[in-house]
Amino acid sequence: MKVIRNYLYNAGYQILAMILPLITAPYVSRVLTPHGYGLNSFTNSIVFYFVLFGSLGTQLYGNREIAYQRNDREKMARSFWEIQIIKTVGILVALGLYFVFLGFYRDNRVLMIFQSINIIAAAFDISWFFMGIEDFKRTVVRNTLVKVVSLILIFVFIKNPSDLPLYILILGLSVLVGNFTLWAPLKRILVKVSYKDLHPLRHVRPTIALFIPTVAIQIYVVLNKTMLGFLAGTDASGFYMSADNLVKVVLAIVTATGTVMLPHVANAFASGKDKEVNNYLYSSFDFVSFIAVPMAFGLAGIGRHFGPYFYGRGYAPVGLAIMIEAIVIVLIGWSNAVGQQFLLPTKQVKPYTRSVLLGAIVNIVINIPLVSTWGLYGAMLATVLSEATVTGYQLWYIKDTVELKKLFVNFPKYLIAGILMFIPVYLLNVKLWTSVSSLILEVLLGIVIYFVVIWVLKPTILQTAKKFLKK
């Protein structure tokens, strides 16, 4: 039950991290116009490269390392400070390089300076530590107040397109303050260690090893926005971000299992429970399939009219973009289960790295021709093909370690239920005038159809759910 509780907390945390821009999006997208909204997307995509560089691979590595050592409080405390020292130094270097970059890149100067707050905020992000000790409640609760306050500030102060710099400032400060709040509980959790006993350099090599796949992942996540900004204009970059934000909110619910299971599996692996590790993968992969399929088909079903209705006039291209990208909910869900819940905690970093590097290479190779030919929709297609490459390689790699048949034993049933759900939902979305009530009707219809079909087909996850409920 602890895993389920942590999953719910982490799903809440992941959604919370994205909920501010999503809740305010219908308002902000109209106030800032597609041009202003696109400028935010484009400038943020540039600063993100520096955040990525400065953070190295500490998010994944720190989570896993703390999970390995959480039974020894002194070792855990030393590892925390050593990893945090590496991250702080990396962020300072990245911040310096960013301002060197601004010396050459003079477009949107005020926006770019305000975006730099995100680099500073990254230095204080220690969410990886709480994920490692499987304390997800603390992270969610402490960030909620900050997110609510920033949401109020946006509605109070953002009134016209000229307020774009203030909007970026509010978003950046909300991340910074939210990260600050995570430091207060450390006094009660960490034991005191002497700075003479700290040896941060021992973490450099494994951190960089995880930095490589982290960079590869983010390259084909952020590169599309950057390339759209250069090749198709900042408006297209804004459309991409708009569609991607909606997909990623849904995806956060699916991938929340990864952050929860990584420390759990890592701890089991460190204890030599290899069979238990495989069983975790089978259960997690099946659960991911169970929730990812209806979410992908459901979002695709309502996406055509929901996107432009949600963001407002001028955002018509977002609808089809959502429909194209929706499939990555399943693909990323699978790669998250295999990569972050199996390969990383069992110290199989090299195949994980190869998989995401392949995805990045595919994205870079096909991005320019696809974006040049189809613009926004080409970028979406590039995203789908890149994620398919990552997932395909990971599944191929583990075929001799686990039974692939067990991973997909229930997937045909989920797929049938998803397709049968999609057809009436999509037809309703096309024929009905889009409103809150019609969207609620479509979502409820989709849920009912999916679960009725699941009940008829009876996948094994129903038996698993009954066992959990009896505990």
UniProtKB/TrEMBL annotation:
Pfam families cross-referenced by the UniProt entry: Polysacc_synt (PF01943)
Subcellular location per UniProt equals:
Cell membrane
Q: Which chain regions cross the lipid bilayer?
A: 7-29, 41-62, 83-105, 111-133, 140-158, 164-186, 207-223, 249-269, 281-302, 314-334, 355-371, 408-427, 439-457
Q: Which UniProt keywords apply?
A: Cell membrane, Membrane, Transmembrane, Transmembrane helix
Give the main location: membrane
Q: Which InterPro entries match?
A: Poly_Biosynth_Transport, Polysacc_synth
Question: From which domain of life does this come?
Answer: Bacteria
Q: What is this protein called?
A: Flippase
Species this protein is from = Ligilactobacillus pabuli
